[in-house]
Amino acid sequence: MNKILLAHGGGGALTDKLIKEEILKRLGNSLLTPLEDSAVFNIGNKRLAFTTDSFVVKPLFFPGGDIGKLSVCGTVNDLSVAGAIPLYLSLSLIIEEGFSVEKLQKIILSIEETTKEAGVFVVTGDTKVVEKGGADEIFINTSGIGVIEYESPLSLSRAKEGDKIIINGYVADHGISVLLQRSGMEVDLPVHSDVAPLNGLVRDILNSSKYIRCLKDPTRGGVAGALNEIATSSSAGIIIFEENLPIRKEVKAACNLLGFDPFTIANEGKVIVICPEEEAEKVLSAMRRNSLGRLSVIIGEVVNTNNGKVLVKTPIGGMRILERPYGENFPRIC
């Protein structure tokens, strides 16, 4: 590899290769190398989580959200799945010369509304303007810090045989919403992004059980990418029941038309929960009481065969391997 491709930013195997071979070999340490969604560390008697993310979505505005809402939710959710209560965010803007002030106002308003919804504060930031053609309208970086009060550690490496796998509703809404908006294609029913701050739902999950193993938001790479990360980190096998995976009919139709697998499409308001079998119903009940978890279902389980692999059981009883995406179905999705 002597050049960076768009596929290197897709959250799949190429992203993993780039990070491990070009970044971790120089910068790796005990906090960075696990490649969790947030770094978790202690300062005094406080356990904290810290994360950062950059947003380059195109188009900037799409059904259900925009780059401003996305930038807050993405960082809040990465802190939340680490078991943290999100508190403070940074906000950095890279703006292309000639960008519309009206668009900037809409984005900042969206950020304001979303921070209020999530109960977090923007406390520091930076603004840069580059020459015309030096960026694509606007890029946003947000970092976040939160405090962890949940006693049991959460990690991609903690899945165990017999654990149940839960998700809080329809998958692939975000990626398909952005793609349809970008392409100008129309479907019978509009597809809206699921982008939302998940910290309230995660709080309900963690309050329902002391035995949650792992939380993961299936963003770039979708459900397939997230589950493969968990299977690899835990040296465990995973079986997903295809008929249990909730997919809207219009999203499924769009995927069939465009040749995409819904398992690999990005989500921005979903969380995968892994917990012991005996805790699953209690966790499900808590999730379904939250507006963002009303459609929560068990979609699979952890097994002691095919370690490191994810298998999908089809409605007719067959099995297929669900591989981690290699690159990106389409870039600039978040």
Describe this structure in a few short sentences:
The strands form 3 sheets. The protein has a 7-stranded mixed beta sheet. A 5-stranded mixed beta sheet has the order 1-2-7-5-6, with helices on one face.
Give an overview of the whole structure.
- With 334 residues, the chain is an alpha+beta fold.
- The protein has two domains: 113 residues, PurM-like, N-terminal domain (60s Ribosomal Protein L30, Chain: A, 2-Layer Sandwich), CATH 3.30.1330; 158 residues, Phosphoribosyl-aminoimidazole Synthetase, Chain A, domain 2, CATH 3.90.650.
- 30% of the residues lie in helices and 25% in strands.
- It is built from eight helices and 14 strands.
- The model has no long low-confidence stretch (mean pLDDT 94).
- Overall residue-averaged pLDDT value: 94
The value of Rg in angstroms is 19 Å
Q: What is the H/E string?
A: HEEEEHEHEEEHHEHEHEHEEE
Q: Structurally, how many domains make up the residues?
A: 2
Question: What coarse outline follows from CA principal-axis ratios?
Answer: globular
User: What percent of residues are in strands?
Assistant: 15-25%
